Amino acid sequence: MTGTGGALFAAVFLACAVEAVEAVTIVLAAGTARDWKSAGYGVGAGLAVLAVITAVLGPAVTAIPLGALRLVVGGLLLIFGLQWLRKAVLRASGHKDLHDEDAIFARELAAAKSAQAQTRFSVPDWYAFTLSFKGVLLEGLEVVFIVLTFGANAHDVPLAALAAAIAVVLVVAVGLAIRAPLAKVPENTMKFVVGVMLTSFGMFWGAEGADAHWPGDDAALLVIAPCVAVYALVWVSVLWRSAPRAAEPSPASELMGA
Amino acid sequence: MNTVVKRLKDFGAFWYDFVVGDDWRVAVVVLLALLATFGLSKTSVAAWWLMPAAVAVILPVSLWSARKR
Questions:
Q1: Is the dihedral of CA A183, A184, A185, A191 positive or negative?
Q2: Which 19-38 residues of chain A touch chain B by CB within 8 A?
Q3: pLDDT digit string (tens) for A16-45?
Q4: What is the ipTM of this complex?
Q5: DSSP letter assigned to residue B49
Q6: A66 burial type by CB count under 10 A (0-12 exposed, 13-18 middle, 19+ buried)
Q7: Domain range for A21
Q8: In this structure, are residues A221 and A4 in contact, taking their beta carbons and an 8 Å threshold?
Q9: For chain B, what is the domain count?
Q10: Is B18's CB within 8 Å of A227's CB?
Q11: Is there a domain that residue B14 lies in?
Q12: What residues of B are in contact with residue A224 (Cβ under 8 Å)?
């Protein structure tokens, strides 16, 4: 695997693992509080819709000329990446609450327990079905988008799909084994890294799609990504000083998942 | 009719949130930077630095406006 291939694998793996953790939390809440069978139907239906979307979008995305693909996808990835990075920096600097799977699970659980049971289309519990269906579909859409765009741009959809599959299988297996939200996963750190990767790839591909040429060609990515990471960490440090709180862990320890 | 309009609005809101997100200025700056890069690439001046420069400007602007006060 080349350096760019390794970066592609890492970016897709981390992004998909984060999305899978969020989807697993929602499905676990639906299954635990309501009905596992209906939650399972919801997962199946969500995956089926995602498969159709992938089957339609996959050939369409790979058929677009590379220059246009890099321009559009680079721009979208950059917007996505800056959103992730913005939230990660705000969280690490204490300006936004940390993403807490335990708290999200408790909230989903409480909402699920208070909803009324209703049978529809042979599904025993419609609420559990729709909750897990939406969770899988919405988080899965991001996985599909990341796999197709990264894969098509790097001319390596199989590698991107492999990274996504390993991430999703790993997270689902752990989630099913412990039947609890994956709170120990350093999600905030992973989101920071994914933000850096998406922003870096977005800048690189966007500029290339707009006919600019990077010094060093593909090797420029190996400079861009560390520069973006350092720049974001500088802003974590700057904002941390003005965060409205008393004694809190330092930004570095928060990003290390401590 | 109202249901159809509401569903269309929800659909549009979902995609706006999915693509543009919390800060629309980020999307606008990225779009302008891509256009400027394309324009500059047609001249003899190097254009690769425009995207990093745009990120260097918009990230702190977006962070600063979202910070807790």
A1: positive
A2: none
A3: 888 888 888 888 888 877 788 888 888 889
A4: 0.89
A5: T
A6: middle
A7: 3-255
A8: yes
A9: 1
A10: no
A11: no
A12: 52
Q: Which residues pair with A113 in a beta bridge?
A: none
Q: Is position B15 within any domain?
A: no
Range of the domain at B61: 22-69
Asked whether residue B5 is domain-assigned, the answer is no
Q: Which of A69, A77, A86 to mutate to test the interface with B (most CBs of B within 10 A)?
A: A86
Distances (CA, A) of A225 to A2, A4, B46: 16, 11, 20
B9 domain residue, yes or no: no
Q: Which residues pair with A123 in a beta bridge?
A: A120
CA distances from B22 to A80, A86, A223, B16, B35 (A): 10, 10, 28, 9, 22
| Cβ contacts of B21 on chain A, cutoff 8 Å | 79-80, 83
Residue A227 pLDDT grade (very low, low, confident, very high; cuts 50, 70, 90): very high
Distance CA A18, CA A185 (A): 9
CA distance A83 to chain B (A): 7
